[in-house]
Every structure is written in structure tokens, then in C-alpha cells.
Amino acid sequence: MPRHVIAVAAIAVLLGGLAPAQAGIVVTVDKSAQELSVTVDGAPRYHWPVSTARMGYRTPNGTYKPQRLARKWYSREYDWSPMPYSIFFDEGYAIHGSYEISRLGRPASHGCIRLHPDNAALLFALVKERMADTTIVVTGERPQKARARADDDAREVRRHRVHRVNRERREAPREAEFAERNGWHNSWHDSSGDRRGQQPFFLFGPPPTAR
Q1: CATH architecture assigned to 23-142
Q2: DSSP strand E in 2-98: where?
């Protein structure tokens, strides 16, 4: 058999062995980075921020197949919270849309994997077409509390700064009005004698005699 025929056959065998590994939809959730990525037939398709389990709850690691889909769903366990575009795996856990968009990118859920509703709709439609061909992989660990604490500290600093500025703005007019009403305003700057005998006011007494 000619060598080029053998070479072509060998390449075909190799490609045939790689095709099953690359085919299908792979949804990978990285809890450490709080990110979800989607690969379709070996090609990267989407990359989105998520929220996995916060302190006291868990999002289980492992490799799963989607068990059922629900376009509209409400959590009976957690005050009927809306879970649009739910993709259930490992019994009660799901990848679903969440309206707490500001928390995406850090742990915030009771165990589910939260997505922006728009992104959840895209993923739902993709998986619905190829549900049997979809794999969900959950990896990583819950990020340390340091990042969340740093965010909270930054918000607290901003809150105090705004409060201080607002307080100063409120107090300044009252202080000026009080000084004017008691005849203290600019009295120690008046050297023309037009203040009709008003004496300078010094908070801690008159200034010392110059030496």
C-alpha cells in the first residue's frame, strides 16, 4: 500500500478519535472565578459572570447531564423566588436566570448557579436543542471572604464620605446664620470703625500682644 494512503488513513483515524471528545455542548462553571463558559463542538461560545453558593450553602462540584428544563420556575423552598430559564442538574440544583444582577460575579445563591436573565435565555435555548449532547462541569472552590469584605469596606467608606459631605453642606449655612445673628461676622476684620463699637469676638480670647 502506498505511503501516502497509509498517512491519510492514519490522520483519519486520529481525527475520528478526537471528534467525539470535541463534539457537544460543555457548560463549565468555575466557582473560584465565579464565571461560566460555554463551548460548542470544541469552540468557545460564551463567557459570563455567575453567582454560586454563598457562605453556609454549597454548589456541588462534579460532571453532570441536564435532567430537565423549565422556562418559568419558582423556588418553593425560598419564598417563591423566580428562577427563569432553569436547567436542572443533580436533582434540585439548577443554572437559572436571576434578577439580582448586582451580585453576579461573587457568591450569593443558596446553591444554584445564577446568570443574568438574558444570558440564561441564550443558554436555555442552546441546551434545549441539544440536551442529550450537553455536559455541565462544576469546578473550583468558593472564593475567600476577603473579596466580599473588601467590597463591603469600600461601600462603607463611600457611604461615610457622602454622609460627611452632606452634613457639612447642611451645617455651613446654620453656622453662618448664627454668627451673623450674634454680630460676629467679620468683626475682627473691620478696621474702619463702621461697626459702631462692636468688639471683636475671639473663640479663645483676644490674640496675644505682638512682640
Answers
A1: Beta Barrel (2.40)
A2: 25-30, 35-40, 43-49, 62-64, 68-70, 74-75, 81-82, 86-89, 93-97
